[in-house]
Specification:
globular; 7 helices; alpha/beta; two-stranded antiparallel ribbon; single chain; about 40% helix; nine-stranded mixed sheet
């Protein structure tokens, strides 16, 4: 039995297609952070079990709550703006039905399509994520950019998960502002210090990494825009962290 878990917050534009792409899952669970649109209504119509829970800026706790609710032998995490292709579905079914005892988790490649362009380079060009694992194999850690830590052998699947994030630059900027708030607070609680050098150096390094070292320039203008926005993301994290230290000094 496979349980799919989706975290949502005002995802009425995405949740329907996402659930359609995982119709083969035995159980579909939506952990909703008090959406104010039709997310919950659509999810229920698609046959998902919906649990309302305040996320409180902690993605890991929200995902771990989903783990507690899931009944499947295998747990599959998917985001609302992601889709499972037929090839990936077949591969997942093959591995989970074979009950390979050696493996407790599976990494999956993710391919981003932004503003009509498939991004094959930059930091998203070769991203792999642990999204499928046996129930009880591990827990999620980290308030943001969270990771699923499992105990046991893992393997990378061949087929990809399709990702359609940030339909507009404005949406990207709203998400950057949200995520950088959480990340800055996380670093502050870890007593991470910041200065002018790091505020300037990190964004510059992030752009060089995405656009040059990881060949984001090969994705054309979307690759450049992505590199700039990720550089801005890095700038905001450290600027917000610096402001936190100023207020608490």
């Amino acid at each position: 039995m496979i349980s799919a878990i989706i975290l949502t917050k005002n995802e009425e534009k995405n949740i329907g297609e996402c659930l359609n792409s995982i119709s083969w899952c035995d159980e579909k669970i939506v952990i909703d952070d008090h959406s104010q649109d039709k997310t919950v209504e659509i999810a229920k119509k698609k046959g998902a079990k919906v649990y309302s829970r305040l996320m409180n800026n902690d993605f890991s706790e929200q995902r771990n709550y989903g783990l507690e609710k899931a009944k499947g032998d295998w747990i599959f995490f998917i985001d609302a703006d992601e889709r499972v292709s037929s090839a990936l579905w077949y591969e997942i079914m093959q591995h989970t039905s074979e009950s390979i005892d050696d493996y407790v988790g599976f990494y999956i490649k993710r391919q981003d399509t932004m503003w009509g362009k498939v991004l094959k380079h930059g930091e998203t060009g070769n991203i792999v994520l642990l999204r499928l694992a046996r129930k009880g194999a591990g827990k999620w850690v980290g308030r943001v950019h969270e990771k699923w830590n499992v105990s046991g052998k893992t393997i990378l699947l061949r087929n990809q998960l399709d990702h359609f994030p940030h339909s507009t630059v404005a949406e990207f900027l709203r998400e950057i502002n949200f995520y950088t708030d959480i990340r800055a607070e996380e670093l502050f609680k870890k007593k991470t210090k910041v200065n002018w050098v790091s505020i300037l150096a990190y964004p510059k390094g992030k752009f060089i990494l995405n656009y040059f070292l990881k060949a984001g320039f090969r994705d054309g203008l979307p690759g450049f825009v992505f590199a700039m926005l990720m550089s801005f993301h890095s700038f905001l994290v450290r600027s917000k962290l610096w402001l936190m230290w100023q207020k608490n000094s």
